[in-house]
């Protein structure tokens, strides 16, 4: 065996709690290196009660296999010692906390101590597998011209970082039926608090809706009416930095070293002027000074804001801007405060890479998964990676986090900070349809950025922040119906919302995977290439299947070979022989 590839740390995420009686344990080995894996576990005080539990390979990337098991105890889990037995078919090896050996250990065991409540990976049930709809407020819908800024330009004008077009809360309220008919289950709003600039990430008042969007009461109305339609609302929390007109920062500008708020910011030189040389900022944006989130006063302020909008306006969660740049203790305190009183609240962190620092069970429930977006962009949009590389990225990404967090993971194809997915696709509509299918059938909570569903396109900021098109003649109605169909399928099939994931096909530009749970399976096959391909799709059973896209039926033939992708860790009982047109998708379920 490649013993150097074998890993189990005995800590999160290799060991975590689903509840106080259920422990989930994961072991990593080299790919296809381990043919058999078993955990031996026993109470610290009674070694005679040892039990052996076989572990199954649940994920496989290009380099590693990931074995996992759930261990259920009759009482609260505590004081359990354990080690692993592994076999490559020729020899057996044993892994304990000291290393890997050819003889069974008599000491040096891993040990799990106690199932504390704070160690449970708790993600709101409603957030798992649901569909987000992201709204950039200033560009979604102008429902009240009376609150338009004086320099407002015509709706649909070329967007810049400075101009305003009049989008507001009243417009969102008027379009709730549209959002509901699309099938979205949660609205994520970019910032709505009083702030400078059209993006509102330079906050001046954290307790007040920006007047150009409406009033606090209109936000309350939006939330109540969304809830009445079964739609939840998540607000954008900008707590890493403020705007220069935030009163504590204005106090620093006025009173300099004598300001009682001087420790709220990272002042680098006096006198303080509006310059990034005088204080630390987010990026190099001098109009957005960075908060000193290690300061206890700042922390108390942030927590007061977060609780206020949950308590008084019944929001369903926070999307936390540049969460990975804020002192970790802030999110730990926020989670403890909010989850104790409002366990349904979702904490969604912005990060652009791996989020293990935030996704440690004590801070975020999930993150904005740009790793997923990058992989889909590179496979479908840019065509610069093949299916094997796509599979590697997706599987290694899933292996980083507990299943519960993966199910809630925010899955964008684009956002207010990126080019539109259709822009990546160079206007190739078939690619856009394909990307939507992959997104809507993958593990997590897919997010539609307003306008994706009707063909809105654009380069990066500010071009990705165009006005929503409401005239039907300006909308791609075929694309809209495609999204509605995919979302309806997702909501109907529990295996897509919260089921497990298995890749079953990786051949050049062809990628296939299975979503499965105890109630059924869905088989997704994508051709991201320019040529038609005849492919054989492994399925679990020799039964009849229907392509839910066009209702065409297929009969599976018997699976006589073992050479199909992951056939050593999954039992395939049948094969579907299908023809895949260029840039097409088929989604099968058993009849």
Automatic annotation (TrEMBL):
Q: Which domain of life is it from?
A: Bacteria
One Pfam family name is Alpha-amylase_N
Chloroplast in keyword set: no
In terms of SMART domains, this protein maps to:
Aamy
Q: Tell me which Gene3D superfamilies the record gives.
A: Glycosidases (3.20.20.80), Golgi alpha-mannosidase II (2.60.40.1180), Immunoglobulins (2.60.40.10), Oligo-1,6-glucosidase, Domain 2 (3.90.400.10)
Q: Which BP terms in the Gene Ontology apply to this protein?
A: carbohydrate metabolic process
Q: Which residues form the Glycosyl hydrolase family 13 catalytic domain?
A: 134-490
Keywords per UniProt = Glycosidase, Hydrolase
- Range of residues in the leader sequence: none
Give any GO molecular function from the UniProt entry.
hydrolase activity, hydrolyzing O-glycosyl compounds
Query: Among its keywords, does the record have Hydrolase?
Result: yes
Tell me which family the UniProt entry assigns to this protein. Answer: Belongs to the glycosyl hydrolase 13 family.
Record-given protein name: Glycoside hydrolase family 13 protein
What organism is the protein native to? Schaedlerella arabinosiphila
Task: Supply the source organism's classification.
Answer: Bacteria, Bacillati, Bacillota, Clostridia, Lachnospirales
